[in-house]
């Protein structure tokens, strides 16, 4: 097919450039081949200045970086400077002639980039090009690990490429090695968590863990705008406490949905058999107003198989928090259930962190609590991909007020840039280790000191003591006039003064 690569532009797909520049790499390929695919989070172009500019989702390179205005030129530029965008690459490979890719390889059979292009073509399309196996040259990695996170991988002797992709063709989101993620990893939060608990007595640590589990369970429901009864919160907390003990499979997902939902009378349990979306309905017409459209129900089996395979891989090379973000946010974009997706999505964070040995044994970080405190940022992270995905999902409303997807969108849920998601989750994990864990441990120590002091003053049932503590906490360490005249009328003024001083000593 005849293609034409764009010259300098000021706007590309509604995204304004910092200065007029010529799209390069993935941007150039999307334009030239009219690829219907979510636009990458960061685009590249060639400007006129002799310094690289990074602004507004653009990276403007210098004239000396300009690639040849050809398929090979822009593909090579993309792999060299932009890393892998598997969704764009697959749509491109489906669009260009098979012979065009084969010819690139024939022209440069030992080339580092042509061998990667050749491998990625066959891996993504599950289709072999009419080419002989590569000569015995040095292996090159499929994922440039200076740019993105990869797995340990296996050698593909046919291409002389080391397949270090962290997933399968059914599910393989990727994450860039940003300065923020490099710093998080260098700080070794796994070791820091163990240092925090190293001097905590076992009984106190067990109580801390139990409280944090309950706090996380409750927060996960609150994020969904629900106020369930205490028994459901506790049941979900127990499920979180078991996270990571076994690898995932379809039956485990169904079990988790059953725990989350509780009352199944008004929810169709199991994987969806129709469309799905996140958003609102028009008040007058009941027409869907989606913020996110879920994967087609016809694609759920394949997508979930890929997600489960990703979990089973347990690659030591992939950072546990990065892996947790990929799995959890990949799941929530697929949205395989009619209800319960959000809570299971956050459960998966616990599952991966526990399964890959990141959190200390028997202790689960209250990630949902940290998310709840940063709910606006959390929604922004979810929208970082949903907003780019939505324009490329063709849909129509159904009579039931649902959506029916009209085009093939499966690859958009298999392959996406999970970098913002990994950075956000790492920040949540950092907060739980740095603040929640020591704060809760200190609180329990202080409460034990307060309780012991009260018991030395007066014999009091535990329920009454907890009630006393609640009144003091609500009133900045002082018993209110109402409490003195009613619930604790039997305390003497001297006892009240001693108890208030105990509270001050313990908590202030």
UniProtKB/TrEMBL annotation:
InterPro entries: Fido, Fido-like_dom_sf, Fido_containing. The keyword Nucleotide-binding applies. Pfam families: Fic (PF02661). ATP binds at residues 339-346. GO terms for molecular function: ATP binding. Keywords: ATP-binding, Nucleotide-binding. SUPFAM superfamilies: Fic-like (SSF140931). Residues 248-398 form the Fido domain. The active site is at residue 335. This is Fido domain-containing protein.
């Amino acid at each position: 097919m005849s293609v034409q690569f764009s010259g300098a532009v000021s706007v590309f797909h509604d995204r304004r450039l910092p200065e007029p520049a010529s799209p390069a790499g993935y941007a150039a390929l999307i334009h030239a081949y009219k690829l219907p695919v979510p636009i990458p989070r960061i685009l590249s172009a060639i400007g006129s200045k002799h310094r690289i500019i990074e602004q507004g989702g653009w990276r403007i390179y210098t004239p000396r970086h300009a690639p040849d205005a050809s398929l090979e030129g822009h593909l090579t530029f993309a792999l060299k400077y932009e890393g892998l965008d598997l969704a764009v690459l697959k749509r491109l490979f489906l669009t260009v002639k098979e012979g065009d890719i084969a010819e690139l390889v024939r022209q440069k059979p030992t080339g580092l980039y042509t061998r990667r292009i050749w491998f990625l073509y066959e891996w993504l399309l599950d289709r072999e090009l009419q080419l002989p196996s590569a000569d015995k040259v040095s292996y090159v990695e499929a994922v440039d690990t200076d740019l993105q996170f990869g797995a340990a991988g296996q050698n593909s002797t046919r291409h002389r490429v080391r397949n270090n992709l962290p997933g399968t063709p059914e599910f393989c989101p990727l994450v860039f090695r940003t300065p923020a993620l490099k710093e998080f990893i260098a700080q070794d939060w796994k070791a820091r968590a163990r240092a925090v608990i190293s001097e905590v007595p076992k009984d106190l640590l067990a109580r801390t863990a139990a409280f944090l589990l309950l706090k996380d369970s409750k927060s996960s429901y609150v994020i969904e705008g629900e106020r369930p009864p205490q028994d459901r919160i506790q049941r979900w907390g127990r499920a979180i406490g078991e996270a990571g003990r076994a690898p995932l499979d379809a039956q485990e997902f169904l079990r988790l949905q059953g725990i989350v939902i509780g009352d199944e009378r008004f929810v169709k349990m199991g994987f969806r058999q129709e469309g799905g979306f996140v958003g609102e309905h028009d008040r007058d017409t009941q027409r869907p107003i989606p913020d996110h459209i879920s994967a087609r129900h016809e694609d759920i089996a394949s997508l979930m198989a890929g997600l489960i395979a990703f979990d089973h891989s347990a690659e030591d090379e992939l950072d546990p928090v990065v892996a947790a973000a990929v799995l959890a946010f990949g799941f929530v974009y697929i949205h395989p259930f009619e209800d319960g997706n959000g809570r299971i999505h956050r459960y998966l964070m616990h599952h991966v962190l526990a399964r890959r040995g990141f959190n200390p044994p028997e202790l689960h970080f209250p990630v949902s609590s940290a998310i709840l405190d940063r709910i606006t940022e959390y929604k922004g992270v979810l929208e970082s991909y949903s907003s780019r995905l939505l324009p490329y999902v063709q849909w129509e409303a159904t009579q039931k007020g649902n959506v029916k997807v009209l085009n093939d969108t499966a690859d958009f849920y298999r392959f996406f840039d999970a970098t913002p998601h990994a950075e956000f989750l790492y920040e949540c994990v950092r907060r739980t280790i740095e603040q929640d864990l020591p704060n809760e441990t200190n609180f329990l120590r202080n409460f034990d000191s307060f309780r012991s002091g009260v018991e030395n003053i007066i014999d009091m049932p535990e329920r009454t003591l907890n009630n006393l503590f609640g009144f003091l906490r609500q009133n900045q360490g002082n018993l209110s006039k109402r409490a003195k005249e009613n619930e604790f009328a039997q305390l003497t003024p001297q006892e009240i003064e001693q108890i208030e001083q105990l509270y001050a000593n313990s908590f202030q």
